[in-house]
Amino acid sequence: MVNISEVRGNSRETRTAAHTHIKGLGLRSDGTSEKVAGGFVGQEKAREALGIVVDLIKSKSMAGNAVLLAGGPGTGKTALALAVSQELGTKVPFRPIVGSEIFSTEVKKTEALMENFRRAIGLRVRETKEVYEGEVTELTPEEADNPLGGYGKTISSVIVGLKSARGTKRLRLDPSVFESVQKERVAVGDVVYIEANTGAVKRVGRSDAYATEYDLEAEEYVPIPKGEVHKKKEIVQDVTLHDLDVANARPQGGQDIMSMMGQLMKPKKTEITDKLRQEINKVVNKYIDQGIAELVPGVLFIDEVHMLDIECFTYLNRALESSISPIVILASNRGMSNIRGTEDIVSAHGIPPDLLDRLLIIQTLPYNAEEIKTIIKLRAKTEGINISDAALEIISQHGVNSSLRYALQLLTPAWILAKVASKQEVTELEVQECEDLFIDVKRSAKIVAGAQPNSFIS
Ligand SMILES: Nc1ncnc2c1ncn2[C@@H]1O[C@H](COP(=O)(O)OP(=O)(O)OP(=O)(O)O)[C@@H](O)[C@H]1O
Ligand SMILES: [Mg+2]
Q1: Minimal-distance CA residue to ligand 1 atom 11
Q2: Which atom from ligand 1 is nearest to the alpha carbon of 76?
Q3: Mapping DSSP to helix (H, G, I), strand (E, B) and coil, where does residue 131 land?
Q4: The pLDDT of residue 257 is above 50
Q5: Cα atoms found within 13 Å of the Cα of residue 438, Cβ hemisphere only
Q6: What is the pLDDT of residues 410-450, one digit of tens each?
Q7: Going by CA atoms, what residue is nearest to atom 8 of ligand 1?
Q8: Could you give the domains of the chain?
Q9: Core vs surface per residue 90-121: b (16+ CB within 10 A) or e
Q10: pLDDT value at position 270?
């Protein structure tokens, strides 16, 4: 007996992460914010301000500007940035990083910053290409005797018959094209397009004339292309500048033994040089002037920005002035603090004053009891947790007294306890048990303060 089990997709709905409930900024069409919308509760001013930022980004009039989200821990800064990315949609690049990501022993920190800058700048390339497009009616490789002798035969060319709504054509293609035909697994009855000058073959899908032949759900059925087989077609591609950098970085070495060794080792990131970037910028600018390409400045979000050091900050200053620059959103939960990399320069949010001066600063405020309660209710709903009113009240109280994060974290363990006790909902009992099992920061600090130094290590 063969054992067959079905693999169930773990779709996004079944997993809940910290910000799963956030769906957007939740603004009305006039830009004002509703009290509870898009998964957001309160923080109206910050949401409205970011709504304006989103509009500026969409109208492309904000490149080179930077925004700072400043506020205490757990006031929704990261959640707000995420909401911005959702508002922008998938066509605008959004690159989230954390300040500490920049520090690596292999790559210079300014280099790492630069890479992330370029990941946040998109380029929409519109190309009109000469293509052959149609449903494949015939696919015959033509064989010839192997020119090197021997018994084997090689493929000298391949005949492809294409049919579109307005005509048919037979093409004789190069054997190299045959390889990409095979790679795309093209068969008779598929709709394909072949680029005339590069010979690149792209399989669009299965012709819907064949829709009834198999019962395969995975197959995408497409109609027979309109117009002639041979035509001009506009192809739109979205890439980031970093994609271009990588694609054009010098391939590793030639054919000698040393480069063979080089290929075994992991490719160095430093291969993308400043010179290469400038070359690419030049080409990009040319494309933009010719109207082939369009720049889409996206968003670089640097969370915990106080983790950057003084060198990174001066670099940021410069990078923001470049003509090709994304919108930079920073977030920090520090007040007055030492700037990393300096001895004793103290500045607001750990950011040097000259950079602070260029930022639009948006403040996030602490939540009141009512808001905390609504957020917890929302989270419980997203995680599929039933909770009694009394239990909700206690957990909300923790949100006020301890922190919103602590309160949110109590939800799931309490739900597990409730399920173990075969209850339908979380009651006060489970919450109290959780309080005993998982202590909050304040209590933990109190215990540590009372103990001898290093008493945990025996
Ligand atoms: N206004 C809000 N509405 C709904 N959920 C919120 C709101 N604010 C925060 N949250 C949720 O509370 C949790 C903590 O928020 P978040 O991580 O955004 O805080 P933060 O300001 O980034 O804190 P930190 O400074 O510690 O990084 C997250 O799960 C977030 O989704
Ligand atoms: Mg955060």
Answers
A1: 76
A2: 18
A3: strand
A4: no
A5: 17
A6: 999 999 999 999 999 999 999 999 988 998 888 888 888 87
A7: 76
A8: 36-120+298-363 (3.40.50.300), 126-237 (2.40.50.360), 369-447 (1.10.8.60)
A9: eebbbbbbebebbeeeebebbbbbbbbbbbbb
A10: 46
Question: Which ligand sits nearest to residue 378's alpha carbon?
Answer: 1
Average pLDDT over residues 118-135: 88
214-236 residue pLDDT tens: 655 566 788 888 888 888 888 78
The predicted model gives 264-291 an average pLDDT of: 76
Residue 425 Cα to ligand 2 midpoint, Å, equals: 30
The Cα-based distances of 359 to 158, 290, 317, 331, 362 in angstroms read 60, 33, 10, 11, 9
> Given the structure tokens 């946040």, which residue do they identify?
120
Report the range of poorest mean pLDDT among 120-129, 353-362, 389-398.
120-129
Whose alpha carbon is nearest atom 27 of ligand 1?
A: 73
pLDDT digits (tens, 9 = 90+) for 359-415: 999 999 999 989 999 999 999 998 889 999 999 999 999 989 888 999 999 999 999
For 177, the token pair is: 């094209």
Identify the nearest ligand to the CA of 382 by its number: 1
Pocket around ligand 1: residues whose beta carbon is below 6 Å from it?
A: 18-19, 22, 39-43, 73-79, 333, 375, 404-405, 408
- Nearest alpha carbon, ligand 1 atom 25: 73
Helix axes 404-420, 389-401, angle to 10 degrees: 150
pTM for the full predicted model: 0.75
Ligand 2 geometric centre to CA of 96 (Å): 11
CA of 95 to the centre of ligand 2 (A): 15
Closest ligand 1 atom number to CA of residue 75: 21
Can you tell me which atom of ligand 1 is nearest the CA of 22? 31
